Amino acid sequence: MFSWLWGFLLIGAVCYSAISGTGERLATEVLRSAKVAVDTLLGFVGVMCLWLGLMKIAEESGMVQLLGRLLRPALRLLFPSVPNHHPASGALVLSISANLLGMGSAATPLGLQAMRRLAELNPQPDYPSDPMCTLVAINAAGLSLVPTAVVALRASMGSAYPTAVVGPTIFAGTCATAAALMTDWLLRPLTRPRRSTR
Amino acid sequence: MTALVKALSEWALPALLFFIPLYGLARGVRIYECFVAGAEEGLRVGITILPYLVGMFVVVGALRASGAMDGLAGLLAPVAGALDIPVEVVPLMLIRPLSGGGALGVTADLLSRFGPDSFIGRLASAMQGSTDTTLYVLTLYFGSVGIRRTRHALLAGLVGDLAGFVGALYICTRWAP
Q1: Domain-located, residue B145
Q2: A108, A124 in Cβ contact below 8 A?
């Protein structure tokens, strides 16, 4: 699925630039993008190390598990297959709350940590489990109570009310999250692998 | 309420930096050794996700530079008009699920052209803030655990994005500060 999408977009872009004569721009941009990907990662790895280091302490001390247990009812609703006492439930709580608080790139490592915890529970290592898909759906919809980047951008553009969009953003974000969760819930049983074919 | 949320987001990180080590020490955990071991994992995750990041950034870069993105926006303009979607925000809707940086660039451009407090400005802001970059989240999350199949997660993310845009359009046309 992803291979087809990726290939289609890439081949489509090259065909389009052949027609519109933007081949040179495409070549430069592609090379630049590859470099930007590494720059993005480098800017990210430090934060990632910091988070995973802190998370390790929180896990060893039992703090993550405690958090997971506190929010058990909500978790059970969203991730019915994750056991209560597994560190995955704590990691899920941290990841989702960091996104809600609009911690931006600081929230990403927590999401990745939660994915790794879910991978430990996954019976088929190369196939995403139900809770993995749900987590991706929630974080891709990315409801944020504090849209920090947009508010900062508006302020820098001389807006009289930079925070005026907070309400609409939360409303729209809630729509996005509800729709993503609904889609996940509806399609989940249809995309489960059949044992005989895989 | 806004002040509370703002304070929460400002102090969330410092609070974690305070409580996690404190709780660890209180429970007799060798916190520095733990920290270093965890941080080392961070580096390993970074190496795992790099190929996925390059693959994604390259294809988005190619789409933008070839002009295909603008071309598609032009094609969709009549459809958008029929649905009462302002034509100006169509490029933003196309790029929002693909590239966080690209979308922020388009939003910045719209805000500077129409003014942040105009209808287009508010709508673009709400669209930008309503959802995260689906393709980025998907690539990174699945890539970090070495999974290439994505089941229905891509569709769920895109449906979420669309619902976010519709929600933003609804609330911005009906409610002005």
Answers
A1: yes
A2: no
Q: Alpha carbon of B83 to those of A73, A172, B78, B106, B120: distances in Å?
A: 40, 18, 9, 21, 16
- Let me know if residue B27 belongs to a domain: no
Predicted confidence (pLDDT) per residue in B119-168, tens digit: 999 999 999 999 999 998 999 999 999 898 889 999 999 999 999 999 99
B2 occurs within a structural domain: no
Distances (CA, A) of A2 to A147, A183, B169: 29, 18, 30
pLDDT (tens digit per residue) in A140-193: 998 887 777 788 888 888 888 888 888 899 999 999 999 999 999 999 999 887
Half-sphere exposure in the Cβ direction for B35 (13 Å, CA): 12
Of A54, A60, A103, the CB nearest to B12: A103
Among A127, A138, A124, smallest CA distance to A78 is for: A138
Which residues form the domain of B50?
A: 43-174
Q: Which has the closest alpha carbon to B124: B135, B137, B109?
A: B109
Structure tokens at A145: 């109570």
**Do A126 and B149 lie within an 8 Å CB cutoff?**
yes
Pairwise CB contact (< 8 Å): B130 & A187: no
Report ipTM (2 d.p.): 0.82
Q: What is the number of domains present in chain B? A: 1
- Evaluate whether residue B123 is within a structural domain: yes
Write out chain A residues lying below 8 Å of B156, CB-based: 133, 136-137, 140, 180-181, 183-184, 187
- SS3 string, A79-126, reads CCCCCCCCHHHHHHHHHHHHHHCCCHHHCHHHHHHHHHHHHHHCCCCC
Cβ-Cβ contacts under 8 Å, B92 against chain A: none
How close is the nearest chain B Cα to the Cα of A73, in Å? 23
